[in-house]
Amino acid sequence: MSNKKKNIHNSSFSPDKFHDECGVFGIFGHPEAANMAYLGLHALQHRGQEGAGICSSDRRQLYVEKSIGLVADVFSEKRLKRLPGDIAIGHNRYSTAGSSVLKNVQPITVNFSLGSLAIAHNGNLVNALEVRSELEADGAIFQSTSDSEVIVHLIANSKGDGLYERIIDAMGRLNGAFSLLIMTESEIIAIRDPYGFRPLSIGKLDGAYVFASETCAFDLINAQYLRDVEPGEMVIINQKGMKSLKPLCAHRRASCIFEFVYFARPDSYIFGNQNVNGIRKEFGRQLAREHPIKADLVIPVPDSGVPAAIGYAEESGIPFDFGLVRSHYVGRTFIEPQGAIRHFGVKLKLNPVRKLLEGKKIIVVDDSIVRGTTSKKIVKMLREVGGAKEVHLTISSPPTIGPCFYGIDTPTRKELIAATHSIDEIRKYVTSDSLNYLSLEGLKKVVPDSENYCTACFDNNYPAFTPEDKAEQIALFL
Ligand code: AMP
What we know:
The chain contains 19 helices and 23 strands. By secondary structure, it is of the alpha+beta class. A 7-stranded antiparallel β-sheet has the order 3-2-4-1-10-9-11.
């Protein structure tokens, strides 16, 4: 075991806390900054449901309010009133079980030699473990298990003269995914990692500047999309206006293709103004061209499969309908009644419309298969409850064979069914009459400039690891 590896294992930073999907929002120069941040976070709720926080500034000091829970539950009118000023940043946190403790909820705020600082981070740092170990060895004391906390420590510890130099210095030591909003009493600094893994857009609302992970947040507050924060760019917004620096060394661009497949909201425009719904529909059309199936009806697994199912139906000419109805009120915990109710877990969320399905050959479209457990239940339910004669499962992305280290929550490689099973084995497991995935070539054909995307979850081609790091980090996930 190398020293480096030993350090990693000695760290109190546990690899099971390494999965963050998040949403960030920022606004500069608006009299209702905190209220706007609240609305922005509300629109970005799909990016994280574990906790939410807003930090505001009245140009004298920072104020922060954050809790575990959904945006609407975390922020009452009274609580928002405790966030004065015309500058604010906010964060929605997603984390896997066990790490949803309050101290991990962002924005993270600190006081250091140059003043106060708040950060909101979307993405995963692949070298957070090493950096944290080094900082701890130098006496740093961490308050959370979030990888984002290393960013504030690096800024505070930097020997750079001013804040910008320190931030640039800190960014140079980070590897992986970061779409980041940093806020002081008087400015917001937005940064995107050189690969451009996660989206981050800039908009304008009257005289105010806004930032959001996705443009659906702009729509809610009537802000106009200006442009993306470019990969490797640092955008500074303060009293003097907007300034752009390109301080980070260029890498190949590697925006996350899975944002198009599953994660982003269909009404958003991301990665250079590409509409997510439009791309998903094209995935469905391409799927229909690659895998034509004789059937009576195309149905989506709602909500994730809807645009691709519409695309499949349009391309194939097979009628589309909502053969599965989704309940939008399923919380994280529920009480399962004693005595077996068949398909209970999935039934709570989805119920087939028997009238539409009975005796029919059905094409059911979902965006991805992860462990395969949901798909198996859906297929069974479509047959047993819905009365479908044939169930053809079609997936609008290629087999998911690699875990994500850059901010999408995926299980370990051995839990990804497609990493260890052939397509026919998966078909047998989910008990569908046929199983077809979109090809990687087909996926790339649909996405403009697809060479600028990270497709590691589909081809194991991880852009942000050196070969040595790769083996080391991947080992931690196995
Ligand atoms: P599974 O039963 O594990 O195969 O789950 C498949 C379902 O999970 C699909 O309907 C996907 O829409 C959804 N899904 C895919 N990726 C993720 C993710 N990163 N987080 C949560 N759900 C996901």
